[in-house]
Amino acid sequence: MQGLIDFLSQGGYAFYVWSAFGMTFALLVAEVVVLRRSRRTILQRVGRLARLRTQNVPPGEPS
Amino acid sequence: MKINWFKYASPTAFYPVAGRLVPVFGVAALALMLFALYWGFFETPERLGGTNPQKEYYRIIFIHVPAAWMSMWLYLVLAAWSAVGLVFNTRLSFMMANAVAPTGAIFTFLALWTGAFWGRPSWGTYWDWDPRLTSELILFFLYIGFMALHSAIDDNRRADQAAALLAIVGLVMLPIIYWSINCPDPNNCAALHQRSSVTDIESNILTAMLVMTLGFWLYSFAAAFARLRNIILLREQDSAWVRKMVDEAGAGPSSSPPPGAGAADGLDAGGHRASRGVSV
Amino acid sequence: MKARQKRLMFVGVAVVGVGIAASLALTALNSNIAYFFSPSQVQAGEHPTDAVFRVGGLVVEDTLKRQEDGLTVHFDVTDNAEIVNVSYTGILPDLFGEGQGVVAKGRIGTDGVFYADQVLAKHDESYMPPEVEDTLQTAHAKGVVETSTESMPAASMPATGQTVTQ
């Protein structure tokens, strides 16, 4: 337990150390999340287009 | 053994290749980064000695230096793909450049951010108009400018060319950044930033730093390839091969996610419920 | 209409970005070349008398004096040729110390003392643990063992000493 507290306090420089490492972690995770979300959105859109095509609904759809 | 590399120069051919590479690079990057974190926090001295008695905050070096290296390396990659695209007029090269840019911007920001939180306890300030810091900030603006210029032009081909030109012009910043710390007499210079060194460094500190660099590098591959796939899908959504791929995958109603679909997609190597709608 | 507004906004952002970048470059040049003076230049009278500028060099050994209030310090900065007296009120950075490189920002008083409102410490590019460093120093000192060469205050020493794993 004391070891964990010592580790987290980083000799009194916890604010600086964890601000730096925390932002790195947050940004890398955020990038992964954004990439996956946009992939989902794009696939949904492509799928919707495909569905419209199979139902032969829009005549004006570009091919 | 002869491989026809030009076969992979088309977005159609590279799309599935990138899809297979993303989880490989992603998992390897995660493993290396975790190892570097462990080594950096548990196998290194708590403070430095000699005339440079930095305390625990020096551990920011384990992300600061790798992020700074990646910021410059990824800009070089960005400019190289831009140049290849302009010269050979290959669509995939421009897409590669676009795929690298946001990741490069993130690492540039991280280099500045982690540097600020290292500078505050050691130098006494978060920010200073030091040549190294200022030139790195301009590199960040170059990344932002590249992305902003590209998204400001609707026509993809013209956007590609304009942004590529900006990327090549911005290449002048790399040598400026590189030599911005070479003050002949460090004690008679306004510059705060210390010179780079991989010789006068303890082996454990060096190990954590280099492994983290490798981890960031592989992460960049994974992120850029994942983004490349998004860009390819978006740009080729009306093409026959994307339609065929979607049709074959069975375009269900996109409002209800098919369970367990697409576990091999993108970065979700862990089999999370990642893909809703159509999985390819 | 919406797309045009978006385009306009991006062009605006780009213009502002380029402008900021250019002004940053100029600021950097100004603050680092035009407004930086070595102690020799200050003693030769090349510094501005009524503007803020920077002085940099090494803190001379045994010149650091702390006033009664505990916040105001006096020290000398040298470029190994000339010396400038510096007075500063505030918290010194962690790496500030005698023999270390500093950059002080402030203005010079009529008494010739440089009154700093910011003192920044520099550090070198060595990343060696104290123990290794000590061994090297001892080796240099022809085998003569000096007791506790590190000037580190005892209170800041870690309770668990084991730091180096080699």
TrEMBL record, chain B:
Superkingdom of the organism of origin: Bacteria
Region (Disordered) location: 249-280
Cell cycle listed as a keyword: no
UniProt similarity note: Belongs to the CcmC/CycZ/HelC family.
Sequence intervals crossing the membrane: 21-41, 61-88, 95-113, 133-150, 162-181, 205-226
Short name of any one Pfam family annotated for the protein: Cytochrom_C_asm
Membrane topology, as annotated: Multi-pass membrane protein
Protein name per its UniProtKB record: Heme exporter protein C
The keyword Membrane is annotated on this UniProt entry: yes
Protein's job: Required for the export of heme to the periplasm for the biogenesis of c-type cytochromes.
Segments forming domain Cytochrome c assembly protein: 25-182
Location of the protein in the cell: Membrane
InterPro entries in the cross-refs: Cyt_c_assembly, Cyt_c_biogenesis_CcmC, Cyt_c_biogenesis_CcsA/CcmC
Record keywords, A-Z: Cytochrome c-type biogenesis, Membrane, Transmembrane, Transmembrane helix
TrEMBL record, chain C:
Keyword set includes Heme: yes
Organism: Thiohalocapsa halophila
Protein purpose: Heme chaperone required for the biogenesis of c-type cytochromes. Transiently binds heme delivered by CcmC and transfers the heme to apo-cytochromes in a process facilitated by CcmF and CcmH.
Family to which the UniProt record says this protein belongs: Belongs to the CcmE/CycJ family.
Keywords assigned by UniProt, alphabetized: Cell membrane, Cytochrome c-type biogenesis, Heme, Iron, Membrane, Metal-binding, Signal-anchor, Transmembrane, Transmembrane helix
Membrane topology recorded in Swiss-Prot or TrEMBL: Single-pass type II membrane protein
Annotated residues for binding of heme: 123, 127
Chain ranges on the Cytoplasmic side, renumbered to this chain: 1-7
Membrane-side (Extracellular) residue stretches: 29-166
Main location class: membrane
Gene: ccmE
Disordered as annotated region, ranges: 144-166
Protein name: Cytochrome c-type biogenesis protein CcmE
Domain of life: Bacteria
Subcellular location: Cell membrane; Membrane
